[in-house]
Amino acid sequence: MKRILMIEVSPRGGESASRAVADTLAARLAALHPSAELTRRNLAAEHLPHLDETTLRAISTKDPVEAGNLNEAARRSDHLTDELLNCDLLVIATPMWNFGIPSALKAWVDLVVRPGRTFQYGGEGVVGLAKDKKAILVLASGGVFTEGPWRPWDFVEPYLRQILGFIGITDVQTVRAEGMNIPTLARDAVPKARKAVEDLVL
Ligand SMILES: Cc1cc2nc3c(=O)[nH]c(=O)nc-3n(C[C@H](O)[C@H](O)[C@H](O)COP(=O)(O)O)c2cc1C
Q1: Which of 57, 127, 156, 162 could serve as 122's disulfide partner, Cβ 3.0–4.6 Å?
Q2: Looking at residues 158-163, what average pLDDT do you find?
Q3: How far apart are CA 11 and CA 8, in angstroms?
Q4: Structural domains of the chain sorted by starting position, each given as residue range(s) with its CATH number in brackets
Q5: Range name among 6-10, 60-64, 130-134, 152-156 with the lowest pLDDT average
Q6: Residue 12: CB within 6 Å of ligand 1?
Q7: Is any ligand 1 atom within 6 A of the Cβ of residue 51?
Q8: What's the CA-to-centroid distance between 153 and ligand 1, angstroms?
C-alpha cells in the first residue's frame, strides 16, 4: 500500500462522527502501513465548484487544443482525478444529509468521474479505469439504515457503491456510525464504529 486518499466531508469539525471514525481508521492505517502516504482532503474547507459550461467542456473533450484552454476548475478536476487514480485505498467519510450525500461530495464526484480518465465507453459498455483500488466508506447518519423501515431511504451507500463500481472500484467495505440522532443509540454509535474499524480487513 503506497498511497491512501481520505475524502472527508463533514463541516462539523470535532463534533463530527464520520471524522472521529475516520481518525481511528487513519491511525490504524498508519500503524499497518507506516510508509504509505496518507492524504486527507477536507471537502468542507474546499468549496469545490459545480460543473459550469466551460469546465464541463474542458474535462469532457478529447481535443487537445480545447483541453489546452483549461480553466481553473478544470485544472482542479485534473488534480483531484490524478489523486484518485494514484491512490491504492480510497476512504470516503461522509454524513448522510437529506438521505443522500452532501453536495460537497457530489461536487467531488462530478469532478473525478470523467470519460477517458476514470471510465470509458467500450464495445461492451462502460469500463472503469480506476483499477486495483480498494475503498472504505465511513458513513454517519442520524437514523438507522442497516435494518428496519428506513433502509430504503438510504441513498448514500447504494449510490457510493454504484458510482465507485462504475469507475472500477468494486472492493468496498463500509463502517457506519448510525443512530446519531436517536438518544438510545447515539452514545454508542461512534465507539461501535471504531470497533468495526478494528475489525476491517485492511
Ligand atoms: C443538513 C443535515 C441533514 C441531515 N439529514 C439526515 C437524514 O436525511 N437522515 C439522517 O438519518 N440523518 C440526517 N442528518 C443527521 C446526520 O446524518 C448526523 O448528524 C451525522 O452524525 C452527521 O455526520 P457528522 O457527525 O460526521 O457530521 C442530517 C444532518 C444535517 C446537518
Answers
A1: 127
A2: 98
A3: 9
A4: 3-199 (3.40.50.360)
A5: 60-64
A6: yes
A7: no
A8: 13
Ligand 1 atom at shortest distance from the alpha carbon of 96: 17
Ligand 1 mutation pick, 7, 144, 180, 182, max ligand atoms within 8 A of CB: 180
Q: Which residues contact 94 (CB under 8 A, 6 or more apart)?
A: 7, 8, 9, 10, 18, 101, 102, 105, 137, 138, 139, 140, 156
Ligand 1 neighbour 94 (Cβ under 6 A): no
**Residue 184 burial by Cβ neighbours in a 10 Å radius (0-12, 13-18, 19+):** exposed
Residue 38 near residue 29, CB atoms below 8 Å: yes
Cell of 60: 469532457
Which atom of ligand 1 is closest in space to residue 12's alpha carbon? 27
DSSP of 53-88: HHHHHHHH---HHHHHT--HHHHHHHHHHHHHHH-S
Cβ(143) to ligand 1 under 6 A? yes
126 phi, psi to nearest 5 deg: -90, 140
Q: What are 125-141's pLDDT values in tens digits?
A: 999 999 999 999 999 99
**How many Cβ atoms from other residues are within 10 Å of residue 10's Cβ?**
23
- The Cα–Cα gap between 90 and 3 comes to 9
The one-letter amino acid at 37: E
On whether the CB atoms of residues 72 and 54 are closer than 8 A, the answer is: no
